[in-house]
Amino acid sequence: MNKPTTITTSLINTIIIQNMKKQIDRINSSIINTLSLSLLISFISITSITNCFAQTPKLSPSIPFQISSLDNNSFIATGLFNGELKIYPDFIEVTLSNTMIKINNFPDYKGKYLLQSIRIGLGEKLDNGQWSIYSNSLPQMINKAFSPNDTFQPPQLNFLIPKNPNTYLPNNWLIITLEGSNLIDSNPGTIGNCYSHSQRDIFKFTTNKSN
Predict the structure, then answer these.
(1) Contacts of 121 (CB under 8 A, 6+ apart)
(2) Please, is 16 exposed, middle or buried when counting C-beta atoms within 10 Å of its C-beta (0-12, 13-18, 19+)?
(3) pTM attached to this predicted model
(4) Which terminus of the chain, N or C, has fewer Cβ atoms within 10 Å?
């Protein structure tokens, strides 16, 4: 009578051991899957971070410049602009670190001039020999009224000029636009833009369309 009992007990032990192995295999498989998922997530994260850094614009050297229209008597508002620019694939960063704006004394105009804003763009030559502004920055607001012979020194001004990555910059130059209006005149509020041009070869150092 004891032998059948022994066989049954042995069979049960075998079944228990097999079940324990299956449980261990399941646990190991779960651990492996979890580790694999963690490694995959880590790889995706590292790849995303790497791509993010790869897409960050390369640092551009600072190029100093000076633009002056003080000797231009055609405009009521003239200026002397000292700053620097940096070129990136999709935009040009321009910083005016030292600016002096002067209001000319026109004999036939004694009213005040409201300087509303300053913006900087890229000039281009047209087929008819004239020029136009190819791309402009957003304006930096001034909104300050001046009398003839007044001068004004704003704080540092920063601009971003959008551009196409394939733009051939040696064909362009910087144009600073002083946007304003007269306050006392037969037609008050008339917009009167005043322009200051850089040298036409300000971008001569760029040698290919990737700049």
Answers:
(1) 133, 134, 135, 136, 137, 161, 174, 175, 177
(2) exposed
(3) 0.69
(4) N
Cα dihedral 144, 148, 153, 154 in deg (nearest 10): 20
What are the backbone angles phi and psi of residue 156, rounded to the nearest 5°? Answer: -55, 135
Q: Which burial class, exposed, middle or buried, applies to 74 when counting CB atoms under 10 A from its CB (0-12, 13-18, 19+)?
A: exposed
Q: CA 91, CA 57: separation in Å to the nearest integer? A: 10
Q: Are 174 and 92 in contact (CB under 8 A)?
A: no
Element (H, E) at 18: helix 2-55
Polymer length in residues for the chain? 211
Q: How far apart are CA 171 and CA 32, in angstroms?
A: 61
- Maximum C-alpha span of the chain: 133
The tens digit of pLDDT for each residue in 137-159 reads 999 999 999 998 999 999 999 99
* pLDDT digits 0-9 by tens, 6-30: 456 665 556 556 666 666 666 556 6
